[in-house]
């Protein structure tokens, strides 16, 4: 009796906690409301299954508890019931998987008009690079990283000269413009994670990873590193500001290009275009 | 599948081969220390696993101290915190759960349950334990090495695992960790071959595969999986050792560490992750399948009812085992691997939910119309179903690739895997210990202490891990030694963290009560007799309790029926032992 009541209490308590507790996701600030919706669908399906299974158990524990003279029913198998349950489970699983794969397809299909922004991680700070006037990011190589060239850009790549370098400072993004975040790490694994954007992806030294999203609300959002990257992991924070178009342009105007940062290379790179 | 009519003599094959001569010990040393008896080896394995498990328990307290009350304890530096979480995870998954289920329960139960006198290769079996012990000692040594143990997280991801910014990365910590894992795998392989061959070749007459208790099916399938999965971890460990000691670049690309160019180039960190999770995901089921098997037997015995859908249960175990080898990359949805892999791995991962759900249905349908005795093992079995269903369902969030994107690397993941592969299997371990302790020692564990242990553990663990999901949903990342003034985290979330820590202490304390019960009852427990639960499987039918060397006295038992003949219509008692030759009109088992 007590056991059955406690099992019921576990279900009721869990459901009440789910609806009444103050702990829930942060207000979304990107286009990935689809992800939130898929989570809601999953919560409903799994919640109903959890409640049904545990309440059924509670009923069994109460109804079929041992009393003097009780005997159990002897029934090794019941093909119909087993088939029926298997099919029902299959349908429930498909109901979660189908929207999930549909949204994943969107998640991995970057729109053609997305602007590229590079995030460069190292222990334990965030830097960024924007493509500049030509809309193209120049080539880079970890081997080229020096104190003067902190992100390892190829000095002789013309596409890189006008790239804007934002070293260990905040990133600004314009509202309602899709961005493709190109993720690069100079040392170990990191993960660029902004809870309000719902998206995240590991950064792997030796390769460039990506994800895309569209910021949908202005404000200041915290960047967290989400892949254990050494003893400073918990302090590897940053800020992404989502701006109105005017504020964004003003911020871009204040940033320095790669050429400006490395004065000598600017002349050498400018030479071919001079004559 | 042919249903074997119970009692029909043709079903019992003649003894074709004479019994193999057992190894008989000649001294105290070879009886109790360098023993080749699987039962002694099982107890050695179990005691060692529980001892190192206590270290993991203390480590979990230390990290909950830090998370619940950040800034209060100066000795828990970020380095120390990361060392605590790494060692806690590694110990629990490998050195406690794997060792206890396979080395402990596997060794004790397989020969007894299939009607064998011992494992097929007793000497190798003994070596298996001693190499395991050596692996544990190397692991413990890393706590005392300069720089302490590794703090790379239990996943040991390179490149950070062997770099300066990670505790133990450029000191002895990571080396000892990798060496210890390599030793563990060698030791495990020796034991694992024994379990597989004993199940396949050592069964007594009449014990067909489809008459084996599900405990044996679970341990057998898990062992086969472990033999296939551990080699991936083995090579990954060897390759990382080479990277660390010889300067190779299996996992090391070009790296600038703190402004300095390292001498590595061209390696792939993601390669390690594939190797690790090719082992790591089956590992989840290596822990889960023995628990599935054991809990099936606990439920059937204590509900006095045949397990519902036995054949379905066997095929579900085998199916889960096979499927678990093609789902590993669901741990890597945001690892930077090719995003199209997500479609495949999300689909396989959600498909595995179907056989798993069947198992859950069959457990609760075994309760349906049963005669439920709420003994301590039964309570733990019920609690297992609750926590396993809970943890399994949150797996449907994380397995569904796009839902995993916001949730991965958050406390949601920590809550999920603790519920499903921490709490749930450990509840089964407790249930199993309360169930088989009378066979192992001849005495019952104390009931009142058991009740306290059960309620504190089940409700406490649920209160720890259920709310933790919501911290993750909020965005709290895992593996943060402190959250600091994170804008998105409310004050109430910090209070929740403190609450979780307090619960962790209560649950931990309950385990000390359990340990006390284990030791106290050896001498002071109530005498159990040979078959206190009136169970059907062979280990309860031994002539002596605890079973003597050779298990079954002069004659090996002959098996006439499956392990689930409870409350057979027409039988004179509510259970029929597997070696009962009687022909009962009502019996329909296999």
TrEMBL record, chain A:
Molecular function in Gene Ontology: copper ion binding; cytochrome-c oxidase activity
Membrane topology note: Multi-pass membrane protein
Secreted is among the record's keywords: no
Domain Cytochrome oxidase subunit II copper A binding: 112-254
GO BP of this protein: ATP synthesis coupled electron transport
EC number(s) stated in the UniProt entry for this protein: 7.1.1.9
Superkingdom, natural source: Bacteria
InterPro entries recorded: CcO_II, CcO_II-like_C, Copper_CuA, Cupredoxin, Cyt_c_oxidase_su2_TM_sf
Catalytic activity as recorded in UniProt: 4 Fe(II)-[cytochrome c] + O2 + 8 H(+)(in) = 4 Fe(III)-[cytochrome c] + 2 H2O + 4 H(+)(out)
Pfam (any one): COX2
Subcellular location: Membrane
GO cellular component, one term: membrane
Chief location category: membrane
PROSITE patterns membership: COX2, COX2_CUA
Membrane-crossing segments per the record: 41-62, 83-104
Keywords: Copper, Electron transport, Membrane, Metal-binding, Translocase, Transmembrane, Transmembrane helix, Transport
Family per similarity comment: Belongs to the cytochrome c oxidase subunit 2 family.
Protein name: cytochrome-c oxidase
Organism expressing this protein natively: Neomesorhizobium albiziae
UniProt lineage: Bacteria, Pseudomonadati, Pseudomonadota, Alphaproteobacteria, Hyphomicrobiales
TrEMBL record, chain B:
Location(s), subcellular: Cell membrane; Membrane
Gene Ontology process terms (BP): electron transport coupled proton transport; oxidative phosphorylation; respiratory electron transport chain
GO molecular function: cytochrome-c oxidase activity; heme binding; metal ion binding
Biological pathway: Energy metabolism; oxidative phosphorylation
A Pfam family: COX1
Gene Ontology CC: one annotated term: plasma membrane
Major site of localization recorded for this protein: membrane
UniProt EC number: 7.1.1.9
Keywords for this protein: Cell membrane, Copper, Electron transport, Heme, Iron, Membrane, Metal-binding, Respiratory chain, Translocase, Transmembrane, Transmembrane helix, Transport
InterPro entries: Cyt_c_oxase-like_su1_dom (IPR023616), Cyt_c_oxase-like_su1_sf (IPR036927), Cyt_C_Oxase_1 (IPR000883), Cyt_c_Oxase_su1_BS (IPR023615), Cyt_c_oxidase_su1_bac (IPR014241)
Catalytically driven reaction(s): 4 Fe(II)-[cytochrome c] + O2 + 8 H(+)(in) = 4 Fe(III)-[cytochrome c] + 2 H2O + 4 H(+)(out)
Bilayer-spanning residue ranges: 42-62, 82-110, 130-152, 172-193, 214-242, 284-300, 312-334, 340-364, 376-399, 411-434, 454-476, 496-520
Record's bilayer topology term: Multi-pass membrane protein
Enzyme class: translocase
Occurrences of domain Cytochrome oxidase subunit I profile (ranges): 23-560
Record-stated family: Belongs to the heme-copper respiratory oxidase family.
Protein task: Cytochrome c oxidase is the component of the respiratory chain that catalyzes the reduction of oxygen to water. Subunits 1-3 form the functional core of the enzyme complex. CO I is the catalytic subunit of the enzyme. Electrons originating in cytochrome c are transferred via the copper A center of subunit 2 and heme A of subunit 1 to the bimetallic center formed by heme A3 and copper B.
PANTHER family: CYTOCHROME C OXIDASE SUBUNIT 1
Protein name: Cytochrome c oxidase subunit 1
Source organism of this protein record: Neomesorhizobium albiziae
């Amino acid at each position: 009796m007590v056991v059955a009541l406690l099992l019921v209490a576990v279900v009721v308590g869990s459901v009440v906690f789910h609806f009444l507790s103050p702990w829930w996701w942060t207000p979304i600030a990107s286009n990935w409301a689809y992800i939130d919706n898929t989570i809601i669908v999953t919560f409903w399906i799994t919640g109903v299954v959890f409640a049904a299974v545990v309440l059924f158990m509670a009923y069994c524990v109460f109804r079929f508890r041992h009393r003097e003279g009780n005997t159990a029913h002897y029934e090794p198998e019941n093909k119909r019931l087993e088939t029926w349950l298997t099919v029902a489970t299959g349908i429930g699983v498909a109901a979660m998987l189908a929207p999930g794969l549909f949204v994943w397809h969107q998640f991995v299909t970057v729109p053609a008009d997305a602007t590229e922004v590079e995030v460069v991680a190292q222990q334990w700070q965030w830097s960024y690079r924007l493509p500049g006037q030509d809309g193209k990011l120049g080539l880079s190589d970890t081997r080229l990283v020096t104190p003067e060239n902190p992100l390892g850009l190829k000095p002789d790549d013309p596409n890189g000269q006008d790239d804007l370098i934002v070293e260990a400072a905040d990133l600004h993004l314009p509202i309602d413009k899709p961005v493709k975040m190109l993720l690069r790490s100079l040392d170990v694994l990191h993960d660029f994670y902004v809870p309000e954007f719902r998206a995240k992806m590991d950064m792997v030294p030796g390769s460039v990873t990506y994800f895309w999203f569209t910021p949908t609300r202005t404000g200041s959002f915290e960047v967290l590193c989400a892949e254990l990257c050494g003893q400073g992991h918990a302090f590897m924070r940053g800020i992404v500001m989502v701006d109105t178009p005017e504020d964004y342009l003003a911020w871009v105007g204040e940033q320095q290009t790669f050429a400006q940062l490395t004065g000598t290379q600017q002349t050498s790179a400018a030479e071919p275009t001079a004559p | 599948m042919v249903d074997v009519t119970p009692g029909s003599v043709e079903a019992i094959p003649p003894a074709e081969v004479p019994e193999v001569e057992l190894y008989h010990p000649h001294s105290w040393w070879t009886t109790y220390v360098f023993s080749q008896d699987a039962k002694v080896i099982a107890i050695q394995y179990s005691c060692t696993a529980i001892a190192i498990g206590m270290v993991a328990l203390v480590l979990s307290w230390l990290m909950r101290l830090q998370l619940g009350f950040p800034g209060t304890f100066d000795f828990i530096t970020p380095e120390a915190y990361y060392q605590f979480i790494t060692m806690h995870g590694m110990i629990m998954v490998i050195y406690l759960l794997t060792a206890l289920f396979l080395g402990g329960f596997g060794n004790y139960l397989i020969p007894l349950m299939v009607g064998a006198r011992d494992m097929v290769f007793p000497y190798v079996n003994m070596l298996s334990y001693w190499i395991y012990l050596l692996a544990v000692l190397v692991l413990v040594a890393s706590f005392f090495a300069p720089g302490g143990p590794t703090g790379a997280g239990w996943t040991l991801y390179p490149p950070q695992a062997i770099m300066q910014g990670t505790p133990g990365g450029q000191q002895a910590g990571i080396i000892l960790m990798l060496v210890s894992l390599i030793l563990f795998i060698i030791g495990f392989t020796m034991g694992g071959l024994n379990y597989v061959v004993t199940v396949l070749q050592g069964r007594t007459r009449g014990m067909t595969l489809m008459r084996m208790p599900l405990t044996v099916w679970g341990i057998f399938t898990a062992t086969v999986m472990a033999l296939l999965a551990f080699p991936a971890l083995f090579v990954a460990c060897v390759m990382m050792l080479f990277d660390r000691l010889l300067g190779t670049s299996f996992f090391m690309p070009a790296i600038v560490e703190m402004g300095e160019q390292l001498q590595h180039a061209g390696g792939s960190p993601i390669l390690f992750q594939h190797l690790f999770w090719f082992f790591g995901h089956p590992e989840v089921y290596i822990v889960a399948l023995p628990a599935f098997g054991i809990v099936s037997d606990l439920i059937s015995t204590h509900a006095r009812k045949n397990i519902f859908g036995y054949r379905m249960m066997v095929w579900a175990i085998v199916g889960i085992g096979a499927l678990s080898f093609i789902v590993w990359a669901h741990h890597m949805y945001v690892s930077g691997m090719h995003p199209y892999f997500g479609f495949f791995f999300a689909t396989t991962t959600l498909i595995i939910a179907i056989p798993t759900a069947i198992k859950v249905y069959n457990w609760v349908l075994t309760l349906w119309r049963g005669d439920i005795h709420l003994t301590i093992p039964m309570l733990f079995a019920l609690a297992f179903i609750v926590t396993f269903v809970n943890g399994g369902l949150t797996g449907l969030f994380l397995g569904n690739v796009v839902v995993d994107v916001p949730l991965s690397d958050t406390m949601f993941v920590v809550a999920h895997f603790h519920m499903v592969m921490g709490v749930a299997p450990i509840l089964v371990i407790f249930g199993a210990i309360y169930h088989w302790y009378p066979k192992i020692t001849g005495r019952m564990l104390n009931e009142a202490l058991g009740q306290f242990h059960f309620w504190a553990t089940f409700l406490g663990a649920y209160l720890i891990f259920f709310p933790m999901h919501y911290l993750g949903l909020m965005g709290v990342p895992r593996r943060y030694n402190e959250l600091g003034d994170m804008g998105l985290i409310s004050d109430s979330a910090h209070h929740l963290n403190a609450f979780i820590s307090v619960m962790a202490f209560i649950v931990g304390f309950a385990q000390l009560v359990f340990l006390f019960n284990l030791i106290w009852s050896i001498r002071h427990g109530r005498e159990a007799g040979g078959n206190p639960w009136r169970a059907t499987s062979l280990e309860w039918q031994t002539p002596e309790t605890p079973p003597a060397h050779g298990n079954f006295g002069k004659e090996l038992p002959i098996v006439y029926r499956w392990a689930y003949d409870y409350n057979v219509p027409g039988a004179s008692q509510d259970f029929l032992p597997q070696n009962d030759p009687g022909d009962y009109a009502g019996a329909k088992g296999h």
